[in-house]
Design a protein that fits this description.
13 helices, single chain, alpha+beta, disordered N terminus, 65 strands
Amino acid sequence: MPILLRFISIIFLLVCLSVNGQQLLPPIQNYQLLDYKGGTKNWDVSVNENGELFVANNKGLLHYNGEQWTLNKLPNNTIIRSVKSIGDRVYTGSYEEFGYWTKNEFGELGYTSLTHLIKDHTFTSEEFWEIFPSSEGRVMFRSFSAIYSYANDKITVVDPPFVVSDFIEFKDKLIVAGGSVGLFEVKDDSYVPLPDQDLLQGKTINDMAIFKGKLLIGTKLSGCFMFDGQKLSAWSTPINNELKEHQLNKITLLGDYLLGFGTIKNGMYLYDSESGKHRILNRESGLQNNTVLSSLLFKDLLWLGLDNGIARASLNNPITYFTDYTGALGMVYDIAWYNGKLFLGSNTGVFYFEGNQLKFVNGSQGHVWDLDVIEGDLLCGHTRGTFKVSENSFELMSEIAGGYQIIKVPNQSSTYVQGTYNGLAKFTKLKDGTWNVVKIEGVDDPVKQLCFETPDILWTAHPYKGFSRIHFKGTGYGTADRIQKFEQQEAPSEYNVKLYNIKNHIVLNSEGNWYTYNPIGDKIERFEEFKDYRNKELLFFDEEYFWFVDDNEQKAIIYTDLKGDSLMLTDLPLRERLAPDSQNLVKVNDSTSYITLIDGFAKVNAPILKEISKQEELPVPSFIVLKDQESKHSVMEGNIEVPFRYSQSITIEAASPQYIYPHYYYKLEGPKEYSRYVESGSINFQNLPYGEYTFKIATAGMDNTISEFKQLNFTISPPWYFSWWSLFFYAALGFLAIYLVRRYNRKKLERKHRELEERLHHEQQERLDKMEKEELAKEVKQKQNELASTTLNIARKNEMILELKNMLVMNKDKFSNSQRYRSFIKKLNSSIEDTEDWRRFEVNFKELHEDFFERLLKSYPSLTPKDLKLCAYLKMNLSTKEIAPLMGITVRGVEIHRYRLRKKLDMDSSDNLSNFLITF
C-alpha cells in the first residue's frame, strides 16, 4: 500500500481510538478445525507471492489457496514445525526431517526430502523450528541443536555448543540467539559473542526482528530489548510490561511504525510506536484462541497461527467493528452522538462509551427503537414510552408506549410527530425547555415509519398494518381529518412496507419493488429511478448518496449517487451481522457513518473507503484445476479435452488468495453461454453440450469493478456417436445405404422391367395363343362344318341312293332284264357301302377328335367297327334319322344298333348316349 494511504489509515485508526474511545477493531476471520481439517496447533505460517497460505500444522502442511484448505501429510506423518515459501518451493521442517514441496500439474503438493544430502552428521532427536532464506541465496533450517544450510544440492551443518533459539541476518551478519546465554555472530565454523550482552544473561530469547534499523529482541518472560550492534538496552515502552506479563512468543513487522506481538496468554498486540497506543486481538475481541504460535503480514492481511485454529485480520480495513462478546448489549437498533459520547440503543436498553468501557444507562431496561438528538436533547423511543437520556439519567417524557420514529413538522419550530404502538403523538418543546406531549386523535393503528408530504399531509406505515395518507386541518395536529388508503390494482402490498421522502417525492418499498405517489393522478406508480435496485432496502440517503442493502442472500451494502458513482461493501463480518429488516445507518458527519449490527456496530469512513477502492489493483485470479465426473485435468494444458461421457458435471476451480473475501465475475463462451457474479471460486456447469468453450474469470472489487480476465480453453468431445470415427462410419453407412438403395431400386427396376417384359410377352403370347386358338377354333369350326357338310352330303347321297333303290325295288317288275336289275341294285348297294366316303370321314373326324377311337376302344375293347362308326356319328350329335342313310340302314335299324351299343357301354336306359359320347 502506498505510504500516503498507509498514513491515512493510521490516522483513521488513531481517530477511532482517541475520539470515540471504544475499541474499534479490524474484521477477524477465524478458521476452526472443522474448516481446515488438520490438527489444532499451527506452529508456523508462510505465504507465497500469489498470496497462498502454507501452515505448519500438527497433522502436516496446510495449504489455503483463498478458496479451500488442503492437508498434505509427510511420509512419516510427523508434526511439521516450520514452513517457508521461497520461489516455487515450500520448505518445511519436522522431526529429524526437512525438505520442500512443489506443485504438480493439478496444483497438488508433492514432497522431496533433503536429509539424504547430510554427510558426516547424525540427528540427535532434532526438530526444525525455523526456516530462513539468507541474502546469499541459501536456505537455512534451525533446530535447537544446529543450523543446516542448503544450497546447490549440498547441505552444510553448523553445530554450536549452545541451544539455538533463533537466528536472523542483521547488518550482513548471521546472528544466532543462544537460548539464555545471549547473541552470537556466526563466522565460518566459529561463534563470536556480540558485545554488551549482560542484560540477556538468564533470559530466554524467543524471537528477533529488525525495527527502525535496530535489532528488536524478544524474550519469553522479560519483554523486549533493543540492540544497535554495539549496545544493548531494555525497550522502554509501556507495552513491554504487558508483554512480560502475557509471555511474548512472536514479533511481526506490520509497517514502518507498527509492530505485532504474539503472546501465549493474551493474543496479538498491534502496537503503534509513534503514538504508543495499541489494540489487542484476543478472545474478548473475537480471536478464537489467546495463544499465538506464529504470525505473518501479507499485503495488510495479518495471518495468525494459534494454539487452536488459524485467524486472519485485515489491518487497514476501512470498516472497523465493535463487538460485544458478553451478550449484555444485544442487537443494536439505533446510534446517536451526544455530548461527545456515542450512545447505543439496543433491545436491552441504552448504553454509552466511557473511554473503552461500555456502560449502561440506569433505568433504560427494555427495547429501544429510536435515539435522536432533538432540540439539544437526546430522546429515546422506548417500548415503555419516550425518555430524555443522559449518561446519568433516564427521564420519562411520554407514557405513550412504543416510540418508533420521530420527525420534525415542516414550517414549525420545535414541533415533532412520533409514531407509536397506538398511533401518533405530537411533541412540542416549550420555551422553558420542557416538552409537551399529546396523542393525535383519529389514528389508533401502530405507526413505525412516517414522513411529511406537505405540512398538512402525513404518510404513515407499519409492517403489518399497511400504509396511509393522513390529512390534517390547520397546524394544531390535534386530530386527523381524513385517512386515505390506496386499493388500486397496481398498489403495493401492505405487508412490510417501507416509507421514504426522497427529494419531495413519497417513495415506498414493498416486497422488493419500488413505488412513488403521483399527486396529480392521486395514485401509486412504479418508481423508475430505483428500478435497478429491486430487492434492496434503502438504509440511508442524503442530498448526494444512497445506501442500499442487497437481498437476504448477499446483504452487501451499495453506496451510490445513482449516476454511475457506486461502491459495494462486501465485508463478510458486515454481511453476516446485519439484522434483517432492522438494520440502520446513522451518519455522524460527511466522512463517518455507523451501521447497527446484531451484536454491536460497524464504523465506515467513506472517503478512505473510496480512496482504497481507487488505488487498489485487483489481482487476476489463477486457475487451480478442472474436474469432470471421472478425473482432474491440468490447467497448464493449452486446451483441455473432456470426454463427453464424463462431462455431465464440470467444475472449474479458481482462486484469488491475495484478495480478502474475494468474489468473482465469469463468462463462459461456446455452444452455451453464461455470465454472472459468484462468491466462490468453484464454478460448476451441468450438462453442457459438446463443443469448444472459452472460460474467463476475473476478481470483482467492492465497487463491482473487475480485474483482467484469466482465460481457460476446454473442449467437450462429441459423444461416441458423434465422433470423427462415428461420423466416418455414418458416412460409410450412408454411402452403403445409398448404394444398397440404388442397387435395390435398380434390381427392382430390372425386376419390374423383367416382369413387364414377361407380362408383355405373356400378353403377347396370350394374344398369339388366343389368335392361334381362334384360328384353331376357326379351323375346327371349318373342319366341323366341312365334316358336317361332308357327312350331310354322304347322308343325302345315300338317302338318294336308297330312294332310287326303293324305287327300283318297287318297280322291279318293270325291268325286262333281271340281270340288269340286279346289276343296278348291286351298284346302288356298293355306292351306299362305299368305304372311300368313310375313310374321308374318318380322316376328318380324327383331325377333330384325334384319339377318340383309341380311348373308346381302350375303355370298351368289345366295340366293332360298326359300333365305332355309330359312336362317331353320335359324337357329332347326329340324329337317328341322319345316321340311318350314313350307315345304309333304316331308322329302326339305327335304334336297334343304339340299343346294343348302350349295352356294350354299360349304360342305363336313363343315360343319354349322345351326351356320353360327346363328352367322352
